[in-house]
From TrEMBL:
Gene3D superfamilies: 2.40.30.170, 2.40.420.20, 2.40.50.100, Helix hairpin bin
GO molecular function, one term: efflux transmembrane transporter activity
UniProt-annotated stretches for the region Disordered: 258-277
Keywords: Coiled coil, Membrane, Transmembrane, Transmembrane helix
Keyword Membrane: yes
Keyword Heme set for record: no
Protein name from the UniProt record: Efflux RND transporter periplasmic adaptor subunit
Amino acid sequence: MHARTEFEESRPAGSKRKLRWIAGLFVAFLAAFTLYSNTLFSLTLPKATTTVPQSGSLEHSFQGSAIAEPAATVDLTNPAGWKVAKVNVKTGDKVHKGQILVEYDGSEAEQQVKDEEAALQKLNLALPQLQAAYIEAAHGDDSAALQDARTALESAKIDIQTQKEHLQALQKQLSANGEIAAPFDGTVLEVHAVEDLAVAAGGGPDIRLAGAQQGFRIALTVPEDVASLLNVGDPVDAVVSGKQPRTIQGTVAAIEDDAPAEGGPSAGDDSGAGGSTAAANRVTVTLQDPKLKGGERIQLQWSLSSGQDAMLLPNEAVHRDDAGAYVWTVQTRSGPLGNAFYAARTSVTVVDSNEYQTEIGDGLFEQDEVVSWSSEPLLDGSRIRL
């Protein structure tokens, strides 16, 4: 009887332990299920990678090439259109200032000068007779005859002066157009003059001459963001292409504010990648090297920066729409199951950019975490997983 009573008393205590064990197991199951559900839910969130702004100087790069051309050229043509009597040079010849390059047949002009000289001589021969007639009329009483004699004499003097001036102009033209002389030391680039022809072959100038002292030049179409970092007078390292490339020195000679209206490159301009293509400048570089002959392909490469520290982000982290530029910053919120991450649209001011990075002016702090990539488009306030 006593043993049964102890057994009966022990049953409620065992039941309580069992209930507590079941309750604990249920709570653990709920916690595990909640954690598992939260894990499954987080896997459905957009996946994102992040970065933080870097401090540095934005660099702009450019690589291009162009054909070396003489820095100073002149086209020489006979304006009178006379036939060519003799061509004294050929393409590639070195010439000195004053050297006769082409001689012209001025026989027709010479004959015209002779005819005008004869006409002047006739006028001079008639002058004494008119002077004598004037003197005779001056001693007479006929005022009308005197006036006629005076008019004839003055008219003859005017005719003589006019004829002299006309003759001098013809003689000057004969002297100027009889030949073409080199205006400076240089190299003959092209010869279009042909003996016994008045019109140059191909319609070009009779002679195209390059100055020897001015060296050579190249002109390239350079993105505006690169050109803005250049200054006239800046030294340039240029590479002459060929089997044995070599480096020569150049100088930035000109930076035109706007590219040519047609937008195309100049002859031989093979401007390469680098910088923005939204706007471009024409940059001229002069080259001084005794081995250059013209026609060589010259390569240039620039890597330039303003030298000022700035806040930089990868280009893929910066977005734009009608409202302006913005980035997705990461906001962290604490919860019972750990931290949760949310994307927040943050407007920024873009100062500059290159092919890889964007310079941010306002809107961010250096410690801000910025989304650089996401598996799907984000919305302001949307939860993400990192």
